[in-house]
Amino acid sequence: MSEDGLFTPPYPVPHKSKASLFKRFLTGWNSWIHTLFDRSYGMQMGEIHLPRLDFYIANDLSVVDRVMDDREKAFPKHRFLNDLLDPLIGNSVFSANGQDWEEQREMVNPAFAHTNLKRVFPAMEAAVVDLLATIRAMDRSKPIEVDPLMTHVAADIIYRTIFSVKLDAEGAEQIYHAFHRYQKNVQPAAMLKLYALPLLGYRRRAGKAAAAIHAVFGPIVKARYTAWHEGTGACRDDILQSLLEARHPRTGEPFSYAKIMEQVSTIFLAGHETAASAMTWALYLLAECPHLQDALVAEVEKETGGAPIGFEHLRSLNGVRNLFRETLRLYPPVSFFVREVTQPTTMRDKLLKKGAMIVISPWLIQRHRDNWKCPHAFAPERFEDPEEAEACRRAYMPFGKGPRICIGAGFAQQEGMLILASIVRAFRLRYPDIRKPEPVSRLTLRPRTAVKLWFEDRNR
């Protein structure tokens, strides 16, 4: 596909008209974005009425601002999403609402000092060195699966930041496959729940997958929690230490072990899965655009003078930054944010009843034809185009918007830029002569099957 001569990477071809509830159920079984129809990319506000839920999709940017800024405190995170995430992260700072969220946020805020960009750079750099060594040691006489590699490096970075230790290959592989199983089971559970049907064991299987993820880092948390409360634990300079020291602003109580596991699970999931998704898609886009690879290598070499990429260099790598931003525009890792209507509300002449779901979709808003030129095309240079400055400011929201915007946005951008610049500097990437990857949207946006790329030594 091409749009005005620009490379247009794969996305589900939208249906010509709105699907029936039955067809929507079938297509939504594996992916949310496959339920969309052509008008979804041009409408300002749509509505769908399901057996258990009325939900509205808002693309009107003034409505988006109202819901996401939530100055009225009327649009908390919807209990439907929290129910899907509960086996994985419980009632954590991500899923809590109201006063509970405010108090949890106050408790975890000190932990995020450890994600200071300069402070965390050495951990990122060490993880990237390990990644490049892993790729060089692999059998590159055939294409390599990118998704597990990006999961490992992103999980390793946040692992070092939370626990001050490396994540081994076995743990990374367990996390990659377990989260894939979690998504594969929680998506059908969501559709069954929306249509008021029995869950058929899907939620139970999702719970088992979540337990497999917790098993990787649970022993570390348990050992340090026990040692800290027995007074035998050494003080570490990491996120887990901050959570151990946190106290409730009203009661002065510390987090229980279960609560620390919920917060750690949230930070770990948010800190690796979304970054891994974005970097996988960015490497695919690079593999399809060899001219861009050459331009980025020239930019890196000019800035570094041939030296290792340092913290001070990243600020000037505008081409790499624009690649990462355009990847997040086309393939936002979290493609839908869901909020609950807590009181009857009128929006665009529609009366939204209490309990309705309102959906803000970065996938739609960042591909909406009223917001962007050639919205489905891959054009990193658009982020320096004055004509698209307003869209970049108002219609670009891969990390959310408002008071609950992702606190790790800068962290994710820094690790993404460092990893992408390091890989493109070391290897020429090519996409094999196979079918293009197909994005599927569940909790996060991933390719249906793992992306495979050729990695050729650039200095050969």
UniProtKB/TrEMBL annotation:
- Annotated Gene Ontology MF terms? heme binding; iron ion binding; monooxygenase activity; oxidoreductase activity, acting on paired donors, with incorporation or reduction of molecular oxygen
In terms of InterPro entries, this protein maps to:
Cyt_P450, Cyt_P450_CS, Cyt_P450_E_grp-I, Cyt_P450_sf, Cytochrome_P450_Monoox
UniProt-annotated binding residues for heme: 406
Name the source's superkingdom. Bacteria
Respond yes or no to whether keyword Metal-binding is given for this record: yes
**Any idea what this protein is called?**
Cytochrome P450
Kindly list the cofactors needed. Answer: heme
Identify its protein family: Belongs to the cytochrome P450 family.
Name the keywords, alphabetized: Heme, Iron, Metal-binding, Monooxygenase, Oxidoreductase
